[in-house]
Amino acid sequence: MNQFMNEIRNISDLTTRASIIEGFTAIVLSFVLSLIITYLYKKTHKSGRYSQSFVHTIIIMSVVVAIIMIVIGNNIAVAFGLVGAFSIIRFRSAMSDPKDIAFIFFGMAAGISCGLGFYLLAIVFTIMLSVLIYLLYAFDYGGIKSSYKSLKITIPENMHYEDVFDDIFEEYLDYYQLNMVETTNLGTMYQLTYLIAKKEGISDKDLMDAIRERNANLKVAVGMVN
Fold this sequence. Notes:
By secondary structure, the protein is an alpha+beta fold. The protein contains seven helices and four strands, in the order αααααβαββαβ.
């Protein structure tokens, strides 16, 4: 009887050690994979609002999700309990870039795979998706190179702006549209805002020089469309 109990204890100890080793492996691997994911995020980030705390969040969530999957295992009761507990959490911060949400799910998917013990799948999944995301970034897939620009012209208040630049626009532009007229300099001048598309081979300087000869050398600005 004592020998039988000793064998049970030995089996229990081996099971506990195996669980600890698996848990440690899942946590370390999810951390390493999330580092790869966040490095890719930094390399492919384009918008001006970059947040270091968001990068840390991806890493933390990946590891936390891996731990949660280890805790749940095949226990349905624990799974429902965790769902109830996490339903209390509310995320208040809005994502400035929709791609940020995709990276959060990327990190969570890696963590889930590690937590369930699919280590090879987690590694292959992370590498393949990282390559695909980088290719989309490198080839700028889906990007549109717009030829439209914004043109702002300041003119004296005694100048009739309706048709004053039409001949210049016909010579230098493929498309133009007057979007806004507003007073400036305490009402002594007008500022005209156009949406324009230049003809091929026409530089901004050529267009601006032609307009300055007509608007008494007042301010002319060409910029990107918001």
